[in-house]
Amino acid sequence: MLLDDSSRITIVEVAQYAGVSTATVSRVINKTGPVLPETAAKVYAAIEALNYKPNAAARGLASRRTNTIGLLVDEISGEFFQPMLRGIEVTARASGMDLLISSTGGMSQSSPPYPLGENNTDGLIVFADSLPQEELVRLHKIGFPLVLLHRSSPSGLNIPCVTVENKEGARRMVDYLVEERGYRKIAFLEGPDSHEDAYWRKLGYEESLAVHDIPFNPKLVSLGEFDETQARVSVSQWIKNGLNAEAIFAADDDSAIGAMAALKESGLRIPEDIAVVGFDDIRLAAYLDPPLTTVRAPIEQAARIAVEQLVKVIRGEEVEAMTLLPTELVIRRSCGCC
Amino acid sequence: MLLDDSSRITIVEVAQYAGVSTATVSRVINKTGPVLPETAAKVYAAIEALNYKPNAAARGLASRRTNTIGLLVDEISGEFFQPMLRGIEVTARASGMDLLISSTGGMSQSSPPYPLGENNTDGLIVFADSLPQEELVRLHKIGFPLVLLHRSSPSGLNIPCVTVENKEGARRMVDYLVEERGYRKIAFLEGPDSHEDAYWRKLGYEESLAVHDIPFNPKLVSLGEFDETQARVSVSQWIKNGLNAEAIFAADDDSAIGAMAALKESGLRIPEDIAVVGFDDIRLAAYLDPPLTTVRAPIEQAARIAVEQLVKVIRGEEVEAMTLLPTELVIRRSCGCC
DNA sequence: TTGTACGCGTTATCAG
DNA sequence: CTGATAACGCGTACAA
């Protein structure tokens, strides 16, 4: 069923109804240029009476602005995703922007043409490694507004980015495990190596070991991939091979969940037999059994800030090149405390 | 920084470069109308060489189609949300549609003007109670493509809808608890009453009780609200008041998680002291301790189908008025089996 | 099979 | 303060 053409109200109808020109209607709607209060009132009345809604496409064409920002993610998965999307959606809406979303990964490892770009948005939030560097470079070169989330700018470019203190968070976590809990055999479930968060978290782990004169042992590192299932498999494998560790530091809470499942499956008690800690402090962390000690990352806040930055960039304002949000240790029972 | 105007490639530049008219370029791109293979090749070459991307706004204006579908949700939260969004995004992308997303609730209990509608999308997926009935009626009256997800059509309208067999699933779950496990004192954590899934699930619970001659006891019903925190509070309250039940049926897995947390907090063992079951089979259900017995709802599949339906409606094809997806019992340890 | 030219609904630049 | 009117980039009859 097609849209009823008779019910198609345009700015022309509104102008006629209000007895003014279309230019005036436009001025009233967009608050651009001066209009007599009484004239404006007539226009508003007409808009109300006719239930007029400006056509987004026509607006975009004429103003060269889509009033839309795009969110590019690699995949819609993980507990991480939800607070991020919430932050982005709410902030975009509050800024009067629409939100177009697309996942680049999943099937085709993001090859051109990319679904979001200068042709349909005013700017893009690019999460982690959801867009190949070449496209990032191209967009940046034509001056297209970009903000990176949970990744840093390719060197030379200087695209604004917002992320969290991954390395410091990871380091403090391991510091705590060593200094307060007395562990020295700490295994690490690393994230996907295409993901920058994963890189920094691992570095923090290594740095803390070094500081405490604990030799880095490759056998104590396995792939968690920010994914429950993968983590579960890796930990099961460890156990089968006779893992000799006092604690497992999972690079994110999703993999911590998988690790805990594998340990329990083998009859190991947490934290009596082995401690488990994570990173992110997803909503479920406190509900696990035992509650998960982790590093709180302000995911939603980072998302909000990214959108705010992007809106500024779109408006031509200056923004800081890099925003690093602090992380915080959250001690619960899974690490053996209390 | 503004977009470099010199780098603005339009269909005109492509036509010139290829030595054809803009009409031909348009025909090639949209595969509308016949074009000689060699001509098409020249056009493709030009597009490639100039890195041309059609302007979405101009397209929308000229064709009267935005090539975009909208997703309206009340709030971005709950484990339920993610598989749904994934299904919608993937299917939309596969159908060549962009995805605009907006949450109506949260702050203002969705009052006009609504962010998504006939002015910026070709059709809408409306989740649960994310849009007031009056707006639903208005959109339907002007013939705007609509598909409802996890709710049914207001009577009289007949808007296509996709949802799962909530009542049957809930009924079978309670049947199982009574017949196989022998429980008769079964408490129920109901969902928000604005949510249709919640309504049907409760009805299934009541029906099963009736079938088994178990009197409905209002004291055994409390608010879970499809939310961990609320469920936890409600269950804690029950415990304080001396709840006398053998099992708790949470209307969704989120509230089951909250319930389990509250029970453990009070030192109650699951399922030895009290059984807990949920509804949805979210990804985490299998990872809980003990693993959660629940009703599997094909959330992602429902989302996919909704998009497919919507695309058909947009194309003017017929679709079934109501699609009911089957649910399935998933027995794990939290119910006391095994 | 291809080209010409008009229209889509707004915004923005002019005069007035 | 307000009104004509020329873009905006593309799709699509209509002609050729």
Q: What percent of residues of chain A adopt helix (DSSP H or I)? A: 25-40%
User: Can you tell me the CATH class of the largest domain in chain A?
Assistant: Alpha Beta
In quaternary terms, these chains amount to homodimer
Biggest sheet overview of chain A: 6 strands, parallel
Gyration radius from CA atoms of chain A, angstroms:
26 Å
Global shape of chain A: elongated
Strand content of chain A: 5-15%
User: At the fourth CATH level, what is the homologous superfamily of the largest domain in chain A?
Assistant: Response regulator
Spans of at least 5 consecutive residues with low confidence of chain A: none
Strand and helix order of chain A = HHHHEHEEHEEHEHEHEHEEHEE
Alpha-beta classification of chain A: alpha/beta
Keyphrases for this structure?
homodimer; 338 residues; alpha/beta; 434 Repressor (Amino-terminal Domain); Rossmann fold; 3 domains; 6-stranded parallel sheet; 11 helices; 12 strands; elongated; DNA-binding
Folded structure, characterized:
- Two copies of one chain form a homodimer.
- With 338 residues, chain A is an alpha/beta fold.
- Chain A has three domains: 55 residues, 434 Repressor (Amino-terminal Domain); 122 residues, Response regulator (Rossmann fold, 3-Layer(aba) Sandwich), CATH 3.40.50; 140 residues, Response regulator (Rossmann fold), CATH 3.40.50.
- In chain A, the strands form three sheets. A six-stranded parallel beta sheet of chain A has the order 2-1-3-4-5-11, covered by helices on one side. In chain A, strands 7-6-8-9 form a four-stranded parallel beta sheet, sandwiched between helices. A two-stranded antiparallel sheet of chain A has the order 10-12.
- In chain A, helix 7 runs parallel beside helix 8 and helix 9 packs across helix 10.
- The first copy, chain A, is elongated.
- The mean pLDDT of chain A is 94.
- Chains A and B meet through helix 4, helix 5, strand 2 and helix 10 of A and helix 4, helix 5, strand 2 and helix 10 of B.
- The structure holds a DNA duplex (16 and 16 nucleotides).
